[in-house]
Amino acid sequence: MDIKKIDQELREKTGTAAIESYTKYRHRQEPAPAAPGASVLFLGTGGNPEAVFSQVPRTAGFILVVDGLRLYVDPGPGAVVRAREAGLDLGSLDGIFISHGHLDHYAGAEAVIEAMCWGMFVRRGVVLAPRQVLERDRLLSIYHQGKDRLSGYKGGPTVRILEAHQPMPIGKVALTPIPAYHGEENYGFILQTESLTLGYTSDTNYIQGYTTPEGSKDLSYRGPIMDLIDIVDYRTDIKEAFSQVDVLIANVTSHNVYAHRHITTLGLAHLLRGSKVKLCIMTHFNHCCLSPDDLRPPMATYVEQTSGVRTLYAVDGGNYNIAEILRR
Ligand SMILES: [Zn+2]
């Protein structure tokens, strides 16, 4: 074995390969602008711990493409892997939105930031997140917030702190954070685009009290809701805010469990009733919605029939062209 020859070959090939990857990922060109219109690509549709560690359903969040803006919403565990599988160029992203500091919503964000900022080589893209995520709990490192002056990497995102009800312009659209009731600091949003208004609920509770054959109940009981007749007390601000949008992406979690922390489809049907929403897409399914039975089709049917609003359930890897769906 000629060790000198091996060494020489390794030096040459590594040098060439390093230049190649550097050119491909760091010293690269800005991608072509996104096509006009609005679409949502669900890299994952799961939420809560069982989905995180079983990946049924996946927990990678979704990418919104609206009016030329490419925004990654809640990149959970698996985000970069699912993006690679979908053949997606994360270096084309314009921004990342993190609703709150729970693993299924932020754990993939640092890797996505490295991709968006081209290996932390350039300053590009924006990260929108609650103060708690950025400052108090520092769930994104200072380096990934683009603020580590000593790292030697000059790149990184612009970081913007979400403020309730304060519209933030990004590209041609404006994003208004809507406070949610789940965990600590947490926001959904309303996105005002040229052609439509799109809402995202994030994780939030909704039902506060309901009637049963035995009388009224509040949400202090945390097991499955079996005896609901009608919802009488609910988050009125959530209903008011999201009733006004054209398209709503709703994190449901389940039909009737975890209602103290999540909308559930029982709550979503109530939220949509009498609203202006033309299309609702449900996501953030707990593992129990897919195993042992796939409960998503009856969940969508329940919401659509009860609310009168067209309702779809998102599937892992599904890409939804909003204008096309609304035309159908
Ligand atoms: Zn969640």
Automatic annotation (TrEMBL):
GO function term, MF aspect, one: hydrolase activity
Keyword Aminoacyl-tRNA synthetase attached: no
SUPFAM superfamilies: Metallo-hydrolase/oxidoreductase (SSF56281)
InterPro entries recorded: Metallo-B-lactamas, RibonucZ/Hydroxyglut_hydro, UPF0173_UPF0282_UlaG_hydrolase
Keyword hit for Hydrolase: yes
The protein, known as: Beta-lactamase domain protein
Keywords: Hydrolase
Residues in Metallo-beta-lactamase domain copies: 70-209
Source organism of the structure: Desulforamulus reducens (strain ATCC BAA-1160 / DSM 100696 / MI-1) (Desulfotomaculum reducens)
